[in-house]
Amino acid sequence: MGNKTDHDIKRKAWLAVFLLCAVFWVIVGLIVYYFLRPATHF
């Protein structure tokens, strides 16, 4: 039973890390797009 809960916690931890990475890259992409957009207009 303890092994199952540990595996579930590890799976949730990986899911949280994956979601955090996805959100981080989306924010980075938006920042890069926001800073490069005015440069293209010049």
From TrEMBL:
It comes from the Bacteria. The keyword Membrane applies. It holds the Pfam family YmiA-like. InterPro entries: YmiA_put-like. The chain crosses the membrane at residues 12-36. Keywords: Membrane, Transmembrane, Transmembrane helix. This is YmiA family putative membrane protein. It comes from Acerihabitans sp. KWT182.
